[in-house]
Amino acid sequence: AGAYTAPVTATDGGSGVVLLETYDAATDRTPTLAAASTRAFAGTGDDVLIPAFNISGTGALRVLIRGIGPTLISFNVSGVLADPTITLYRGQTVLATNDNWSSGVNATELATAAASVGTFALTNGSRDAALIATLPAGAYTAVLGGVGGTTGTALVEIYALP
């Protein structure tokens, strides 16, 4: 149990696309992966952030997915993505999308969900993105890009909700 970080860097100082996979391989199902996040440069086209995740078992899992850009400034991150948008896919099917979390009808639910998993709050009116979805077992991707083709450093977070 605990929080872990796995930085991925190029040994030659270069840049490029990377795949980092994390699995909960417990056979007795006691351990549970509760959250995953990645901070990276969000570009355009094929260079947007695309974290993928799988849900196994039976029933459905309620998840909170956030795309953070502007709020990273408060953590002394420079060059942030000013206006992220996040879209949740199952295969090629769009399940949900959000731009500007607090302008949605479920802004209170998003804030409550974030507090329930112990993550930092987003400022009302920020251009960060967030969505909640209830998902059956399967493979999913969350695509984070910048509104209007903008680029910058962003954070994608995926939380299993209680």
Descriptive key words:
1 helix; mainly beta; single chain; 6% helix; 6 strands; 162 residues
Describe it.
With 162 residues, the protein is mostly beta strands. Helix content is 6%, strand content 41%. It has a six-stranded antiparallel β-sheet with strand order 1-6-2-5-3-4. A hairpin with a 2-residue loop joins strand 3 (84-90) and strand 4 (93-99). The radius of gyration is 16 Å and the shape is globular. The chain starts with 34 loop residues before the first strand and ends with a strand.
Q: Return the structural class.
A: mainly beta
Q: Which radius of gyration do the C-alpha atoms yield?
A: 16 Å
Number of helices in the DSSP assignment: 1
Principal-axes geometry comes out as: globular
Give the topology, please.
Elements: E1 35-42, E2 52-68, E3 84-90, E4 93-99, H1 107-116, E5 129-146, E6 152-160
Antiparallel strand pairs: 1-6, 2-5, 2-6, 3-4, 3-5
Describe, in short, the structure shown.
The chain is mostly beta strands and 162 residues long. Helix content is 6%, strand content 41%.
